[in-house]
Amino acid sequence: MQIPKRAKDRQFAPLNHSTYEYYRKNTYQYGDYFAFRHGKINHLKSEFVADIESFAYFFKNELGLNKGDCFSIFMPTNVESLILFLALNKIGVIVNFIHPLLPSENFAEIVKFTKSKGVAILDMFVPTYVDTIASLKLPVLCCVPATYALPDKYAAQASDAALAALHDKIDKFLIYADVLKKYDDKTLGHIVGSRDDVALYMNGGGTTGKSRTIKLTNEALCNVIHMQGHIAYAAEEIGVDTELCCMPFFHAFGLCAGALSLINKGCKAIFMPKFDVDAFVAHFDENKICEFNGVPNMFHKLLEHPDFDGPHLKSVRVMYCGGDDLSPEFLDEFNAVMRKNGSDAEICQGYGLTECCAVDVVNPPWDNNIRSIGRPLPGLTIEIWDEEHNKVPVGEIGEIVMHGPTMMQGYLTENGPIDEGLFEDRNGIKWVLTGDLGKYDEDGYLYFVGRKKRVIIISGYNVYPRDIEKLVAKLDFVVECCAVQGYDENKKSIVRLYVVANDGDREEQKKEIRDLCAKYLNKFSIPKEIEYIDALPRTRVQKVDFLALTQAKPE
Question: What is this structure's pTM?
C-alpha cells in the first residue's frame, strides 16, 4: 500500500461527529494494527476498541450515566485514561481531567464544581485520597498501572494498600480489570454524543491569569485533530511507527497534540505516566520512535542524557515543543545531534491555548522557522490587535487573538452565560483574547513577544521580560533565567532577574549580564537586581512560574 507523506491525505473532514465516532471513522482504513504498547506487549486496535465498548456499556448500564453528565479522571498519562475518555464520549458524558497530584481539597472542589458522578483513580493514589473520595460519596473506578503489561489483563488487581485503605469506606468501588472481564463481549449499538456536545472540562490558567474550567466541544476536538493532519507526517509502517506520549492528558497539549493526534497517523503509541529521561531514552532500543512532543525542560534533559545521542535517533521524523520556547542556540545544538545520527527531524515550536485546544500555531517539519512559533493551523484566524481591538499592521506588537472551530464553548460557571470568556466583536464574531503579545512578519510567521500581563512598565516604558531572558540565556554560564517585576527601596518599578548559573565569579557574571543588556536593550530593560537561585519554580505543567518570583507592589 502506498502511504501518503502527510496525515491530511488520509483523514476525513469532521462533520457531525463525536470524538469517538471520528476516531472510528479515521482509523477504519488502517485495518487492525498495533495501536499501543505497554511494557513488552503490543495491543491491537481491535482490543482497544473492544475495551472502549465494554466501558461504554458499563458507564451507561451499571453506573447509569447519561448525556450531559460528568465523570472525573484523576490519573497520569496512561492508555486507561484514553479508553475511558472515548467510552464516556460515546455516550455523551463530559470528561473532567484532573491533575493527579492536586491536594485533596482542590481535588474535591473540582469534582464538586463539575458535578461529577464518579471518579477514576490510580490504585497508588487511593491511600492518600481515600477520605476525600469517601466524603464525595461517588462510585470509584480503580485502575492498576500493570493492567495492559500483563499477559492476562483481567488478572490485574489493586494493591493491598489501596484495598486496605478502602475497606468499609466507599460504597461502590470497582477494579478496572474486573469491569473489563464482566462486560467483555458487551457493546452499545448507537453513539449518543454529537458535534455540539461539550466533551471535556479542562482546568486551565485562563487568559487573565485566573484558574478557570474550560469547556471544549466535540466539534473543537475533531477539528484540532483534523487541522493537525496538515502539519503531521503519516506513518510509513502502520502500527510500527511509534509515538512516545508523556505529556499529561489534564493539559490540552498532551491530549490534543499527543493522544488524539494519533487518529490521523496510524501510529502505535507508548504512554508514559510521567517524563523519566532514562525510561524515555530506553524506549528507542526496542521501538521505531518516529515522533514525540514535549516542553523545553524535557528537551534539555534529553540533550544532557549520555545515551540520547546515537544511531537510534535515525527513525525520528518530527518533534514538537510547546508550553514555552527554546533559544535558537539550543535548537541548533539539539538539531545538530539529530542530523549527526541520520535524522532530518528538527524541534518544531508552536503555540496555543487550552481555550483553543492548545494546538493553534505550529512550525511544520518541512517549513520550520526556528526563530518563530510558526503559522496558524489551516482553518484558524489569528490576528494581532491593539487595545481598541483593531488589527495592527505587520511587524507591530499587539495582543494575539483567535477565532475558529477549535474555540472553547466558554468557561464553566454556576450561573454565567454559556460563552463566558469569549469576546464578541462589532460583527458578531467571537474571539479568544489570549492575554499574550505577538507580532507577524511579512512571510506570515508569528512571533511570541511575551505575556501581556507580564509587561513591566518603568517610567511609562514597556519592558518585555522575554527579550531580557532570551538575550541573557546566550551567555555560556547561564543555565536559565527569569526576569520579573520588582520594586526598589523607593517603591519604583525595576527589573529583577533570577539566574540559574554554573559556578564562577558571581560579581563578574553580573557585570557580563548588565553589559550585554546595555549593549542590546534599552536602559529600562537592564536588570537593577540580579539574584542567583538553585532552580526556577515551575507550574504543574512545568512552565516557569514567573508569578511565584514576581514582587507584589508595595503599599
Answer: 0.86
